[in-house]
Write a structure and sequence with these properties.
By secondary structure, the protein is of the alpha/beta class. The protein has a single domain, classed as 3-Layer(aba) Sandwich (Rossmann fold). 45% of the residues lie in helices and 19% in strands. The model has no long low-confidence stretch (mean pLDDT 89).
Length: 129
């Protein structure tokens, strides 16, 4: 979905360790900050598209890389993203980038894991209504 990423030979560490070491460069996916979360999102977003969803909802900390990557993936696919975030909203870091890509954010200072699920379900009900 996001394109192929290169596998590169790590010459210096290969020499130092006496092995041939190759590195998969998922940081070059072109999706937000790249990385391992992008690989998982390929499957999540493909499922959302197959169900004709127009919005995705996820949760995380205010400066969550997962939340940012989800918002960016949604934007690239023409979908909306709603982020249920834990912490204090400051207009910097990933929270700023979430807003920049157009994600809807709902920020709660102190919530538990069980409350997160309930807040995500509440967001879903509001979107359907």
């Amino acid at each position: 979905m996001w394109g192929r990423t290169p596998i590169v030979y790590a010459a210096n560490i290969s020499r130092d360790l006496g092995i041939d070491l190759f590195i998969k460069r998922d940081d070059l996916t072109g999706l937000a900050l790249g990385g391992n979360k992008t690989r998982k999102l390929e499957f999540i977003m493909a499922e959302a598209r197959s169900k004709n969803c127009d919005t995705v909802i996820t949760a995380g900390a205010v400066h969550s890389n997962h939340a940012l990557q989800t918002a960016t993936a949604a934007k690239k696919l023409g979908m909306e993203a709603v982020l249920v975030l834990r912490g204090v909203a400051e207009n910097k870091g990933n929270y700023y980038l979430d807003k920049l890509v157009g994600a809807g954010t709902r920020v709660y200072n102190a919530i538990t894991g069980g409350e997160v699920q309930a807040l995500m379900e509440e967001s879903q009900r509001e979107l359907i209504a």
